[in-house]
Amino acid sequence: MAPPAQSQRSPSPSQPSGKSEVSDLKSQLRQLAGSRAPGVDDSKRDLFKKVISYMTIGIDVSALFGEMVMCSATSDIVLKKMCYLYVGNYAKVNPDLALLTINFLQKDCQDQDPMIRGLALRSLCSLRVANLVEYLVGPLGLGLKDSNSYVRMVAVIGVLKLYHISASTCIDADFPVILKNLMITDSDTQVVANCLSALQEIWSAEASTSEEASREREGLLSKPIVYFLLNKIREFNEWAQCLVLELAAKYVPSDNNDIFDIMNLLEDRLQHANGAVVLATIKVFLHLTLSMTDVHQQVYERIKAPLLTLVSSGSPEQSYAVLSHLHLLVMRAPFIFSSDYKHFYCQYNEPSYVKKLKLEMLTAVANESNTYEIVTELCEYAANVDIPIARESIRAVGKIALQQYDVNAIVDRLLQFLEMEKDYVTAEALVLVKDLLRKYPQWSHDCIAVVGNISSKNVQEPKAKAALIWMLGEYSQDMQDAPYILEGLIESWDEEHSAEVRLHLLTAVMKCFFKRPPETQKALGAALAAGLADFHQDVHDRALFYYRLLQHNVSVAERVVNPPKQAVSVFADTQSSEIKDRIFDEFNSLSVVYQKPSYMFTDKEHRGPFEFSEELGNLSIAGESADNVVSAQRVEANDKDLLLSTSEKEEAKISTGNDSAYSAPMYDASSVLVTASQTLMEPAISNPTLPGQATQAILAIDDLLGLGIPAAPAPPPPPPQLKLHTRAVLDPATFQQKWRQLPVALSQEYSLSPQGIAALTAPQALLRHMQGHSIQCIASGGQSPNFKFFFFAQKAEEPSNYLVECIINSSSAKAQMKIKADDQSTSQAFSDIFQSALSKFGVP
User: Does the keyword Iron-sulfur belong to this entry (predicted)?
Assistant: First the structure.
């Protein structure tokens, strides 16, 4: 334990200033160090307690190190413990002082009292001073052979501590081999469990560099060792049982009889009082039977009762953890849990996070036989005082309706929600009614009759307002006031802050125009003019697209914007099946609770597309010569933001060619869509024309909105082909300086071929490939699935540089690229060359 930070509070009778008190303690300890008078141990206890209390509140008492060590020469175990605590606290920050403790700790490691031997060995291994590892080998070797199980247990963990201090010392002393023999022969189960834990950690760390360690790690999963541990599992404590069960889950059985033998051995573990043991056992059962469909389903039936029992007992936190695992199983096999739906009803005293998970499970287990009861229960929650739970319950009703179970009754319930005088209930119901109409258009008459009575002024939430606007446009022929409601919304365009609502409004007005042209003509002109002047790029682009579509051909525009209605059969799932399978593979871990694979929340490089950790490993400069190698530490010291930053200020200054961007024209309110209205009522006549004639015809069409959009200028001549220097040279310092100074010219995403992703297992191959296309790598880093590269290139005819940051995610087969250039006018040409080279990577 590191010493606490120094306290900044002013001294008081209960808060000593430090200096005088430490001096007094030093003199008192020195007097008692060699004393053998009666009651001296009691005096030492009082002084030791003062030292520990001062250390705890932040006073530096390291000056007492020598006196504390001298006073530790006693058989009093309480004094020993306090002295070991003090020594362990100051040894790491004062390695020179730690040397003073070696003699008395080694002496205590040979004490007659096994408790003192164990405590001394634990303290000796906890010093964590690299210079003292030579003094650990002897005591550890004796501790592993000690007659007392407590000392052996401490010695096993001490070997693991030694490995983390000096791996070579641990391996050279053959401690892993000793631990393996001890694991098989020792009579104490805790010693066996500690040996298993230490060996797994040591051999997993060594496996990447040693084939022997890799074989030993695989040897732990052999049938004799796995069966040996499983036969003794009842003798282990809960922690050790979980460790053995985790090992058994990785075991690959030789045949079906092997599977049934293991399951019979572990059958009684499903009734264990500890939830961690039950979940670990369930993981073994599930993983062993994955290849046996019928048995796997029977396993679901068998584990259902223990899981439901765990949910109803214990704290809400434990219930949530178990529910998360149950939720995962319910999503994989909902039919097995459909008869137990009442276990997922919410209790009034449950926290909201438990209720939310239960609502998701109720949605999953709903079928023809239980839909009515589940929906009735969910409707009760809609009036809950907990607004988030009320919202979730309404969404759950809608999800069940989309599963085609008892749709008639559910639609009636949702329409009743629309009539409730609660804004959040109405908002959620509107969103769900929109989805229902997309899947069941036959219900439009009943739904629109209720929706038509809702005032748009009473709907404030963006998603709900967007849903209402969608229905106004989609069913404007059935809603008498639809054009006028839309016109009122357009008049308050500037007051609408949601881009989603403005986008829906544009589309709804377009649809309404094709169904009721005379009434919507003016509103459409106003909507397109407002959209063209909108500051949001998506809204501006859609308005411009609609305008040009109408200008080209109104009949074509109608077919594009208002095609015949088609029912949506399946809605997109928010989580891919690959992610769900990955979570299932990590059963009985935080992955299930977080509902995401472990690599998404444990590895720092997965925090975002541009986030990279400082611990990615060394960044190596491309090239074979040692003179051209720059370490990660040096690069980071020169410019920490260059390779490891997640957000760069110049992203806000990306050059997008706004100087030549289209400038939205002013809207002339006096102009009307006469041409469009007339065209709509006439049969469309299409005459094939040449491209040039078509362009002239389009330009000859009168401006439908009177917006006076000028004709597009003739395209500029193509730029000359860019050529790169085949032997470009750029030193790291210049690269970093330019990277800081230059703005981002282009930021793009590119998809890699499967062959390229496969070849990326050796990142050096990519560096050589790009070098063959005159693009040099100056730094690289990362590990699968995220790799980060910095490239540079130069023009052949002039000293103009291109700098590239390329982040490749091998799991999504995507490459994120940022390009900076001295000559930004040629950035796109260089990007084409770069992407072309990247597309050929791995292709034979």
Answer: no
Assigned token pair, 393: 């319950």
Is residue 233 within 8 Å of 186, Cβ to Cβ?
no
Q: Which amino acid is at 345?
A: Y
3-state secondary structure of 166: coil
pLDDT (0 to 100) of residue 135: 86
Rounded to an integer, what distance in angstroms lies between the CA atom of residue 543 and that of residue 533? Answer: 9
- Are 644 and 636 contacting, i.e. CB atoms less than 8 angstroms apart? yes
The predicted structure's pLDDT at residue 156: 95
Confidence at residue 549, expressed as pLDDT on a 0 to 100 scale: 92
The helix (run of H) or strand (run of E) holding residue 683 is none
pLDDT at 720: 59
Q: What number of residues does the chain have?
A: 844
pLDDT of residue 661: 37
Low-confidence ranges of the chain (pLDDT < 70): 1-19, 404-406, 573-575, 603-720
Pick the closest to residue 161 from 128, 200, 120 (CA basis): 128
Per-residue confidence (pLDDT) for residue 574, from 0 to 100: 62
Nearest C-alpha neighbor of 179 from the set 232, 119, 220: 220
Sorted by sequence, the CB contacts under 8 Å of residue 783 that are 6+ apart come out as 605, 616, 617
The encoded tokens of residue 620 equal 């190596």
Distance CA 414, CA 375 (A): 10
| 779 touches 793 (CB < 8 A) | no
CA-wise closest residue to 330 among 372, 290, 361: 361
Structure tokens at 787: 């790799």
Which neighbouring-strand residues pair with 819?
Answer: 746, 804
Please answer whether residues 230 and 265 qualify as being in contact, where contact means their C-beta atoms are separated by less than 8 angstroms: yes
Q: Is the dihedral of CA 447, 449, 450, 452 positive or negative?
A: positive
* Structure-block tokens of residue 90: 């100051």
CA end-to-end distance (rounded Å), the chain: 57
d(CA 786, CA 755): 17
CA-based nearest residue to 177, from 162, 198, 148, 158: 198
Q: What is the SS3 string spanning 226-250?
A: HHHHHHCHHHCCHHHHHHHHHHHHH
Could you tell me the strand order of the sheet in which 814-821 lies? Answer: 746-751, 814-821, 801-809, 786-794, 776-783
Please name the residue that has the structure tokens 């319930």: 413
Say how far residue 739 (Cα) sits from the centre of its chain.
29
Q: Is the pTM here over 0.85, yes or no?
A: no
Rounded distance between C-alpha atoms, residue 697 and residue 708, angstroms? 16
Q: How far apart are CA 727 and CA 560, in angstroms?
A: 52
DSSP string, 429-482: HHHHHHHHHHH-GGGHHHHHHHHTTS-GGG--SHHHHHHHHHHHHHTTTT-TTH
Task: Quote the tokens at residue 457.
Answer: 């002024």
Q: Assess contact for 406 and 375: CB atoms under 8 A.
A: yes
Conformation bin of residue 4: beta by default, left when phi > 0, alpha when psi is -120 to 50? beta
* Cα Rg, the chain, nearest whole Å: 36
